[in-house]
Design a protein that fits this description.
Blueprint: H1 2-22, E1 32-35, H2 36-50, E2 54-58, H3 74-78, E3 83-85, H4 90-102, E4 106-110, H5 121-129, H6 131-134, E5 144-148, H7 164-168, E6 174-176, H8 181-193, E7 198-202, E8 210-213, E9 230-233, E10 238-242, H9 246-258, E11 264-268, E12 271-273, H10 277-287, E13 290-293, H11 302-312, E14 324-326, H12 337-341, H13 347-358
Parallel strand pairs: 2-3, 2-4, 4-5, 5-7, 6-7, 10-11, 10-13, 13-14
Antiparallel strand pairs: 1-8, 6-12, 9-11
Helix pairs in contact: 2-8, 4-5, 9-13
């Protein structure tokens, strides 16, 4: 009996040793996943801790932890002085934030949705965006205007607009539109540290989506430079250029098209103004085809600007077919779900446009 036990133990040791030689014990640790809302929260927490001039104000950002829980825990940690609940008056608290920025602080002004920023658009454009120029470089306005942008679900015409093209039209502003958790953290930290007013366009439907975070992005020193796009997927047949939630749609469409032998290069713009034209041109020169994808309206939109830049630049001569835009439908957003779905770009619309552009 004892001999058989010893034999069993020896065979067990040999099996463990064999596993070790094969490297099973060296398996990489599971990647850290983080939801977009938590990445935004972490970015603000780190910057509030790093710089005492940073503070957050907006509706329900403090005691309620934010309407979308993006500021969860910050009021308890930093108190009333730096996490400030405001009345429902966007023109008022945006004006307070701009004044604070002019006085040397670094406010983060949260709009419960960017649709409400229209109440404060005079403060954003006339007071924040133009002051540095009008003061001949004497008066900087380091402020971040942030909140959910674009269509959510079932909130109809007055709460479903994409403001990317609106604010990107205005000189003096930087306009940022993150897609995943890493974008959200790195770009928000850069926006808070920037000496210019930054419009930071989040997406409500992305808040609860988890993404893998690289080891580098977990550092308190991690930032992503404003004005630089990222190639999320390499491809050779067509360039798909998008921002925010629709980067996911482009990646999903690329997976489907790859099964048919069509390799899409997917570009995540990250920043709308300044636009990384060089990245788009480099891709178009490689693929010879361009499709832009956005949730906003078509007329004077982000895609329209990209098409104009390509036409005016060196990449135009590399196009083998006209550029195509996939956009929201040119109507106010309907309330009914089936109409809403048909008013926004879907994966099938991207696939259709790619095949039309490639003439397949």
């Amino acid at each position: 009996m004892a001999a058989s036990v010893r034999c069993f133990l020896r065979s067990g040791k040999n099996a463990v040793s064999a596993l070790g030689r094969r490297g099973f014990h060296k398996s990489a640790p599971a990647a850290v996943q983080m939801m977009v809302r938590d990445a935004l929260n972490q970015a603000m927490d780190e910057e509030l801790e790093r710089d005492e001039r940073v503070f957050l104000l907006g509706e329900e950002v403090a005691q309620y932890d934010g309407a979308y829980k993006v500021s969860r825990g910050l009021w308890k940690k930093y108190g009333d002085k730096r996490i400030i609940d405001t009345p429902i008056t966007e023109m008022g608290f945006a004006g307070i934030a701009v004044g604070a920025a002019m006085a040397g602080l670094r406010p983060i002004c949260e709009f419960m949705t960017f649709n409400f920023s229209m109440q404060a658009i005079d403060q954003i454009i006339n007071s924040a965006a133009k002051t540095y120029y009008m003061s001949a470089g004497f008066q900087a306005v380091p402020i971040v205007f942030r909140g959910p942008n674009g269509a959510s679900a079932g909130v109809a015409a007055q709460h479903s607009q994409c403001f990317a093209a609106w604010y990107a039209h205005c000189p003096g502003l930087k306009v940022v539109s993150p897609w995943n958790a890493e974008d959200a953290k790195g770009l928000l930290k850069s926006a808070i540290r920037d000496d210019n007013p930054v419009v930071f366009l989040e997406n409500e439907l992305m808040y609860g989506v988890p993404f893998e975070m690289s080891e580098e992005s977990q550092s308190k020193d991690f930032t992503i430079p404003i004005g630089k796009a990222k190639v999320e997927r390499q491809g050779t047949h067509v360039s798909l250029v998008s921002h925010s939630r629709y980067v996911s749609h482009c990646l999903d469409a690329a997976v489907v098209l790859a099964k048919e032998g069509i390799e899409c290069e997917v570009i995540n713009l990250r920043t709308i103004r300044p636009l990384d034209v060089e990245c788009i041109e480099t891709s178009v020169m490689k693929t010879n085809h361009l499709v832009t994808v956005e949730g906003g309206w078509p007329q004077f939109g982000v895609g329209a600007e990209i098409c104009a830049r390509i036409m005016e630049g060196p990449a135009f001569n590399y196009l083998d077919a006209p550029a195509t835009r996939v956009t929201g439908v040119d109507i106010p957003m309907p309330y009914a779900k089936i109409l809403e779905d048909n008013s926004l770009p879907q994966i099938k619309d991207i696939i259709f446009s790619v095949k039309k552009t490639l003439n397949v």
